[in-house]
Input
Amino acid sequence: MKKLYFVLFQFIGLGLFAQALTTNPSPIVVDQPVTITVFVNSTDTDCNHFNNPTKVYMHAGIGDNSSPWGFAVVGNWGQDDGVGLMTDNGDGSWSITITPSTYFNLTTAQISQATKMGMVFRNEDGSQEFKDNGCQDFILDVVQSSSSVDNKDFEGVKMNYNSGFLKFNLRVSN
Output
């Protein structure tokens, strides 16, 4: 029954709260494909916005709780070189699908220690960027396997609504 309420909340929440960034699945599993989608016309962040970009790039890193960018960074800021290039979905959103362990060329030790990913989005020449509220990098949780989602607390999950935001803690269990 708890899962049903959680799923209902998710679907209801999609209609009530606009989003700047989503991942599927969420949280990100380090050795599984994840689709990262950014909504370039979103006003759910108070920092920078795109102005009709022709290309959007993801500049991303992976690390641990002390340094979300600490293990590896992929992206060449200001270079239109295809590294981190996202796909235009035609609806104001852009997506990229990666498997973090291979995208960042992680070692076995790094895979077992990865807990965070940092992201910033930019246009092709880096003259426009898209960040989270307060001009902070987007920082997302990373887990080692999909089974580690069960009985794990995820703190600081944000759902933006207009100029304010709702912050809540989430616990997933069987």
Summary: Residues 151 and 173 are 5 Å apart (CA to CA). The longest strand covers residues 152-161. Residues 2-16 form the longest helix (15 residues). The chain has three helices and twelve strands.
